[in-house]
Amino acid sequence: ESSLKVTGIDFLKSQNTRQHHTDGYNIKNLVVRRGHPFQVKVSLSRELRAADKLSLRFGIGENPVKNRGSLLSLKPEREDFNGWKISVVKKEGKECLLSVISSPNAPVGKYNLHVKTGTNIYKPENGVIYLLFNPWCEDDVVYLANEAQRKEYVLNDTGYIYVGSSWSIYDRPWNYGQFEEFVLDACMYLLEKSKLSLTDRRDPANVSRAMSALVNANDDNGVLLGSWSGNYISGTSPMDWIGSVTILQQYYKTKKPVRYGQCWVFAGVLNTVMRCLGVPSRCVSTFNAAHDTEENLRVDVYLNEKGEKLNSLSFDSVWNFHVWNDVWMKRTDLPEGFDGWQAIDATPQEQSQGLFQCGPCPVKAVRAGDVYLPYDGKFVYAEVNADQVYWLVKKVNGKEKYFKLGAEIKDIGQNISTKAVGQNRREDITREYKYPEGSKEERMSMQRAYSFIRPVGMGPRSGYASTVQGPSGNTQPLVLRDPVTKTGLHLEITNTEALHPGNPLEMAITVKTSTPGNWTVDLIGSCQLQYYTGKVQANLGTIKETIKLEGTSEMQIPLKIAPDAYMKTLSSMDGEVLILVTAIAEVKETNDKLTKETSMRFEYPPITVQMPETAKLYNDFTCSFIFKNKLNVALENCKLLVEGLGLFKMTTFDQGDIMPGRIMKSEIVCTPTRLGEKKIVAKLISNQIKGISAEKAITVT
């Protein structure tokens, strides 16, 4: 009697990957999602008989063993093993078609498939199967019911990250590229590096927490090294990335941290990793995000007598924007009511359980003030809900003293934004994180949060706290809203001309009063250049005026900065640079004080992308990039970075210096290798401008 041997196995890749929504992955191996059936065709030395013993063995990890659950031995039609099952679909001569269903809570990762017949074991080449989370499967905790959302949050490999300031939000195109070569392998390498147990790999909450730690290089030699120094000679400036692909490919090749990242880069890469593993994920930008509030829900901002913001005294800060991620899942480890979006953050800011990791924190818990829930609820709550208090620092008899300014509280956590589902526009999701300002629910949520967070006294937190004017030791929650002044004093800051680098910066501060009476207002205004982290890099100029207003009236005071006052600093700064204007007004008759600040960004001429609207698979076409320097200054060391997923690899053109009025044109030949809508992203950087982006889509048929 000849013993039964396996002569071959067909993983039916094109049919399986189509059904599992994994046909995009650029990899030889079979990629499937847990909880859904896939088929394999086994070729045998003779036909299969009732008495034959045939089993499929799936092993995960270094030394798979049955009793640890890392080796699954599946026999057709037998009771399932750890929630897995196989069955014979049909037998045809020496061929046997088998259907395999993995458990909807199986550990994700790479499984080695061997086929055992009697005492023979067959090991196929490319026999490693990648098993991912499955948002299409109702029994998987990452199940997402809406198909359009699954397309966006799992399958879309391009998107936008929203940056700038709440005063001028703009979109930065980002290529996630979760299907590109080596990206899935990089994610599997991170899973192995995380040392998560097999049980932990079943749960997206544990996996997403581990990935938030591994995407930054702190603690574990993870993917990206963060730097906010302004000097990026020994790596790539965070401004110069246009997607995650190059970063993850380089990391996978070298196994060393890639230099350098800032918050939107960390979020872009973490979004790629989570989508790649099959967890629905989105990048979330918060404008005016509070950092390092020492869990007292307050950020202190110090101004000198010219109205200029001081860096040196503040440990805490308000970032113009901060980007993290939301991932979608049921939280089986929490009481009911906290399923859905969970915030995770890979930017290394504060340690959580000894590592730079953050989340998953239920977005519903942030909204309800349930900040005690795992993980890192207090930190995320403070980022979007802290209060901002302004202090005036004055020298009195040679000593610095602090005076609290009746601050117009700039609400922290504004315009919380993500890309809309299926559309290229910004969606405001602030309401998912916060109840409407001033509503009964908001007050209750705040009281709840405050009962878990112990606010400390009211003094400014710096080395000179002993000289504070005013109460201290006051543990009452500080809830400041726009003060209603006796004069109805109000400040507005605007730019009166477009803010083009090389032109004068022309801005204005409008002072308004709205109650009867004659008012004398002392106005101080300052203009500074700052990084998006709120760190001031240069003082550009100040104004000081005393104006008289009567009843309901207003006056506009111009603030103008000449090009030579800022161009040199701008060229030497590498990063997301904003123009910060701060105003302090004091009414002499009533002693009312008011502070207002606004961050604005520079405006740049556009890049034009020219190409056909449609293309045929594997038929080359040309794409050109045209840029005219409409500014009054030469742009030095220009580089054009372009990438088109499924069309061409990331390419850099060195353009040298582009003089005012000159036109730059570059061309690239594209070869479409994938069907559907594909995007080309371009970015121009130079000493003077830190990134003009453009993108264009083409349909490949």
TrEMBL record:
Its EC number is 2.3.2.13. SUPFAM superfamilies: Cysteine proteinases, E set domains, Transglutaminase, two C-terminal domains. Its cofactor is Ca(2+). The active site is at C263, H322, D345. Belongs to the transglutaminase superfamily. Transglutaminase family. PANTHER family: PROTEIN-GLUTAMINE GAMMA-GLUTAMYLTRANSFERASE, PROTEIN-GLUTAMINE GAMMA-GLUTAMYLTRANSFERASE 4. This is Protein-glutamine gamma-glutamyltransferase 4. It comes from Erpornis zantholeuca.
